[in-house]
Amino acid sequence: MGTLIPRLWSKNKRIFWRDLHAVPGFYGVLLIGFLLITGLPWTGFWGDTFAQVWGRFPDEMWDNVPQSTMVTGSLNQQGSLFVPWAAEQMPMPQSTIPAASLVVDHSAGDHSADDDNNVSSRVPEVFNKVVATAITAGAPPGFNIAFPTDETGVYTASAFPNDPKQEVTIHIDQYSGEVLTSVGWKDYGIVPKAVELGVSIHMGKYFGIANQLVMLFAALITILLAVTGTVMWWQRRPKGSGLMGAPAMPAYVQDWRIPVAVIAILGLILPLMGLSLVVVLLLDYFVISRVALLRRLFG
After folding, report:
1. Residues β-bridged to residue 156
2. What confidence score (pLDDT) does residue 30 get?
3. DSSP bridge pairs for 71
């Protein structure tokens, strides 16, 4: 009792809230840990650094392809996922500009209506070839296409389906419609494959409604832990300790060096978390402990 089954019938409020906190946490710790780990690759600082190390492809894949300074991940903007995580560090190739007679400078004022007609007639022709090329290259139904943004830009066909094994990212020359680079599941390393599979499960896409229900269960447990943890902290606040008073250290506390070592290791693995802990410690030592009003407030 109290570990596997919550004692919700207890009249002792502390036992009630403690079990309501501990038992769901016991059952949900693996799911919550999974959510944390699979969410990290999409974070700003840690995720970008992780991708720089594990999201790269062999340079020889682009030996015969002109590259730009941009990466494919630049197509993922404002929270919109256009390309998979595993393809974000893939260099964006450049289209080969054809002979000058085939390129029309629309910024110049001196050109004929025939030039405009020739260019406009080529756009659907090339686009249709891009679509056909993406399908031939194995893009599953529902793939997206990003248009080139300048004269050396490329069409990018990308599929981000429920099953990561069907993912594909294809860069296509805007003039010839030829494939410049194509990356899919078979090209991923072990770590990118694990990340893509984890992300798909994290987002509730991999095995349908059951996947969504499992992730919903994990989210509800997280909310419950936050609420019950707050209630228990409020109940254990020493009287007269101030609004934010921390509970006293229990007499039976174990060796403090073990949890401190764990926190230090996590702070190194997750630098921003470690930095925030250092900032809090410095504020506590140099500000809160030295200002009477703050000392009473935080107890």
Report:
1. 146, 171
2. 92
3. 91
Angle, in degrees to the nearest 10, between helices 208-236 and 13-39: 130
Q: Are 70 and 87 in contact (CB under 8 A)?
A: no
pLDDT given at position 299: 64
User: Which among 124, 117, 196 is positioned nearest to 164, based on CA atoms?
Assistant: 196
How many distinct helices (H) and strands (E) make up the chain?
8, 6
Tokens found for residue 263: 């926190």
Dist CA 62 CA 65 (whole Å): 5
Place of tokens 């209630």: 231
Nearest-10 crossing angle of helices 45-54, 271-286: 150
Angle between helices 13-39 and 190-202 (to 10 degrees): 130
Per-residue model confidence as pLDDT tens digits over 37-93? 999 998 878 888 888 888 877 766 666 666 667 888 889 875 677 899 999 988 889
pTM across the whole model? 0.77
User: What 3-state DSSP class applies to 178?
Assistant: coil
The CA distances from residue 11 to 14, 19, 25, in Å, are: 9, 12, 21
CB 29 within 8 A of CB 217: no
> Rounded CA gap, 220 and 24, in Å?
10
94/55 Cα distance (integer angstroms)? 21
SS3 at position 239 = coil
All structural domains of the chain with their residue ranges: 58-187, 244-299
Which of helix, strand or coil describes residue 247? Answer: coil
Per DSSP, the residues of 10-52 read -S-HHHHHHHHHHHHHHHHHHHHHHHHHHHGGGSSHHHHHHHH
Q: Residues with Cβ < 8 Å from 12, sequence gap 6 or more?
A: none
